[in-house]
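Chapter review: from sequence to fold.
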Amino acid sequence: MNITAIAAFAVVAAVLAVMLRQYKPEYSIVLSVAAGVFLLMFVVAAAAPIVDKINEIMDKSAAVSQYGGVLIKALGICLISQMACDACTDAGETSLASKAELAGKIAMVLVALPLFDDILDVVIKLLG
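The token string follows.
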């Protein structure tokens, strides 16, 4: 992953968005969101070896694979909700940004519910 290229692209997109905001604010938001999506796609593509290694580790143990799946889903939820929150904040919609953040938190709890069941089972076995 070439962090210099990513940082340069982000800075150029930010400068263009600020310059464009003076003349066409609606296009500035579109540029910001498009640049964010492009950067996220580049980073996700560059992170493929990490995901492959995590899958390899999860395949070695059946117990870890369930928790690893929850971890991958949680990471995806965090990235998506943070990007939505940032896009809404950039657009000046702080209320929508807080709702996107709340939706991400609720989605995280839903993904983690099976883990809560496993923890409860362990506690019941220890006590009983």
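Two observations follow directly from the output. The helical segments are 3-23, 25-46, 48-60, 62-90, 94-127. The first helix runs from residue 3 to 23.
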